[in-house]
Amino acid sequence: MRRPIELGVVVLAAAFAAGLYFWRVNTHATSGALIQQGAEQTSRDTSYYLKTDEGFDNVRSVPFRVPFKLQRAEWQIKGGRTFLVVQFTNPISAEVWSQAGFCLEILANGKKTIIWLGRHLRPKLAPDLKAHEALIADLNNNRVEGYGQAHWSDKQVEVVLPAVLESVDVVYLRYAPSEQAYREGSLPMIVSALRAEEPPAWGARVRRLQGGYLWVDE
């Protein structure tokens, strides 16, 4: 009699685990969008960086133009993959594409995961990242977890990830107008952001990959 009871307990436990799995899958959002907020819409098209390469006594601010910002980010789950589209306010010109360095840092899964992709910039965590790749990393452990595909066009970038995201929380655009500016100041700096929720009045903590960035020729 004991063996059938034990078998029944195992079957019930397996059924419960399967039910819990499907409940979690079905209760997670399968799509979403982050749009430009009012403060972002009225922010200036000019920013500044501190020129620090000549010593502390010669630090000065240098203005630069921000040619495009983040307009909208959409994401959708299909067939065990995540599809993201990030749209820009203005087209990326040929001049900006050839001279500037910029990257997108997409925080997901409760800001525990980062999706990173960029032009002329690479994270030191993954210096061999290709231009058409998107890095997936664990922010808590600063560890690479996988790679997706990134397809840039003049006014948006499409990202395909071989993983299911539970949420997309924040998208940051970091920008440096040139390699010279990148080496002179503490760049790239955040020039635009999209958020699923408004940050608290005292400001939001910015999570990023550890180790900094590298400039690469492309």
The whole-number mean of residue pLDDT values reads 85
Largest sheet: 10 strands, antiparallel
Q: How do the strands of the widest beta sheet line up side by side?
A: 1-4-5-11-10-9-7-6-12-13
End-to-end Cα distance, whole Å, is 71 Å
Supply Rg: 21 Å
* Low-confidence blocks of residues: 7-11, 13-27
Number of structural units classed as domains: 1
Structural class: alpha+beta
What is the global morphology? globular
Please write the string of helix (H) and strand (E) elements. Answer: HEHEEEEHEEEEEEEHEE
Notable characteristics:
about 220 residues; alpha+beta; about 45% strand
Overview of the molecule:
This protein has helices at about 1-25, 40, 95-100, 180-185; strands spanning about 30-35, 45-50, 60-65, 70-80, 80-90, 100-110, 115-120, 120-125, 135-140, 145-150, 155-160, 170-175, 190-195, 215. It has about 220 residues and is α+β, with helices and mostly antiparallel strands. A hairpin with a 4-residue loop joins strand 6 (about 100-110) and strand 7. The longest helix is centred in the N-terminal third of the chain and has 26 residues, at about 1-25. The model is unreliable at about 5-10 and about 15-25 (pLDDT under 50).
